Prior knowledge:
- By secondary structure, this protein is of the alpha/beta class.
- The chain has 7 helices and 9 strands, in the order E-E-H-E-H-H-E-E-H-E-E-E-H-E-H-H.
- It has helices at 57-66, 85-92, 100-103, 134-144, 198-210, 228-242, 252-270; strands spanning 35-38, 46-55, 76-83, 108-115, 118-125, 145-157, 171-176, 188-189, 213-221.
- A 9-stranded mixed β-sheet has the order 1-3-4-5-2-6-9-7-8, sandwiched between helices.
- Strand 4 and strand 5 form a beta hairpin.
- Helix 1 packs across helix 6 (228-242) and helix 1 packs antiparallel against helix 7.
Amino acid sequence: MSLFGELQFGFSRAVSDDEDDEYSRIEPNLNLKRKIYWLEETTEKIEVDELILADGPIACAFLHVYLLNHLSESEKRLLGLSATNSEFKIFQNEDKSESELNRMRKNLIYKINNLDAKSFLVCEVFTNLKSNEFYDWIDQLWEKVNFKSCTILCSQNQTSYFSSHQQQFPCVKFLSSNKNLTTEDKCQRLEEPNFLQNLPAAMIQFCVLKQLDFTAFVCYSQSINVDIQSVKETYSGVSCLLKDKSIFKNDDLSKKSLLSVGNLVNSVSGLYM
């Protein structure tokens, strides 16, 4: 689905007189469907001020460099993860003391309390969800968590961006329910005919239906994989727009973390050369 595209609802096939119709015997493999596994059993809903959703490798790397790596284990409580059944079983048997950088790929969900006097639920979706998983995933999240506003971070390939003006890449654009946000040089409002896709679009639609405030940032990059310049540009755009309301930090630790992300990408790329 896309935010500004047509919304197509599912339909059912007419019942066939042929009971041997091969399609009627096909059942989805639920073990391959990614869903949220909560690590704490509770009947009470979790209350937070804001949801931060990072969709894709660039957005997750941004969260790692400018937020999560600055928090101790006691400051960010691991609540769950998005995984298939087999991925969750592997996670249960893994060493939980692995580096934050490796955990970035695990689609983890954290709760952060008392950060600038606010509470946050942070969802990393490093591995993009499939189109038949978007709404189920959001429903599972809403069943467990109440949030008043939502910040969405994502990226798209620069070939999907259309403009009559010349644009330097990577670049960051935003959409927001707050019409009073001032457009900045480093982060301009996303103009038509451009649109957000997939999980970010589904989350924005959910926020509109629930009348929740939202701000979405999209980084248009040469690649949907992690690259240092796109991560840095995402920070520039987000911090420029949010100003003193930003919870993201750019300091020596951030620069060190950014370098480690670059080393990880280079080491993985080297395997295929």
